[in-house]
Amino acid sequence: MQLPEAPQKIVSDRDRVMWLVLLFLVFPLSQGISNVDDFLPVERDALIELRETLNSTINLHSIWTGPPCIKNHSRWFGINCLNWHVTSLVLEGVQLSGSLKPDSFKNLTALRRLSFKNNSLFGTLPNFSNHPYLQFLQLSDNQFSGPIPGNFAEIPQLFELQMEGNSLNGTIPPFNQRTLKIFNVSNNLLEGQIPGTPVLQSFPVSSFVGNPGLCGKPLYETCTPSAPTIPITAPPLSPSLPGPPTPFVPPSEGPSKSFEVWGIVLIVVAATLVPLSVMLVFFCYYGRIYRKKSYGEEQENGGSLKPSTRAANKQGHGQPRPGSGPDLDRIM
């Protein structure tokens, strides 16, 4: 009667083993699902917004579905993960088109690599000010425009920065991260002097060529001093607003100074000669009047002589008498 009890014991042991196996299978799965819900919605939403913003030859709507990361693995095209976080986003040569928002990657703070090389993205570059782990930033051969954001020079672990073949303008920020070993901004529209930081000066000429307005080492184009700004007359301001202060212009040295001295001399000479000329004209005028008056009085005196006196004078003409003569007659 004791022999049939053995199979029942074997069955119960098998049941226990089955329950243990199911427990080990279900518990990690439930734990993983809770982790997805707790840690990845923000990153997933950022990628979904990026998917809706850009166009591509690959259908991101069909391959970017579900959670982007399952622990250290990803089912999404171009995505790498570590500890449920997106650490790499690589979409190269898939004809991506559209513009990136300034905060497109704000919530992907664990990014270590971002590569959109060889696409058709346009607009200004996004912001990477809160990406302490970013090491590889590859945005070459697109249509990006505008300046290089200054916060690119503040990415602490940046190792590679490739932005050649775009339409970037403005000046180059003073990159000086010791971690930066690969740098290329060639064939853009950058201008101004290349910053003299040790890191930038260590890169070859090929990292900067193709920018017509760029100058300074390591390029061979020397930077010329900027020409003086020509002041432009501003339109009159309204009476209620005070006008800008008149800029002080220091006196120039050289020939202009001698011209000023001669000008002062001429002014002094003119101020002296003008009164003298007036006085000379005045004396000449009144002297002429005086002579006319004297001559008239002489004529009147000469016309009142008696005929006998006139005859005597006429006979004695040319033989003046003592005590008489033309000077005495003129005085009388």
TrEMBL record:
Keywords: Leucine-rich repeat, Membrane, Repeat, Signal, Transmembrane, Transmembrane helix. Residues 296-332 are annotated as: Disordered. The chain crosses the membrane at residues 261-286. One of its GO terms (cellular component) is membrane. SUPFAM superfamilies: L domain-like. It comes from the Eukaryota. The keyword Transmembrane helix applies. It is a single-pass membrane protein. This is Leucine-rich repeat-containing N-terminal plant-type domain-containing protein. It comes from Amborella trichopoda. The lineage of its organism: Eukaryota, Viridiplantae, Streptophyta, Embryophyta, Tracheophyta.
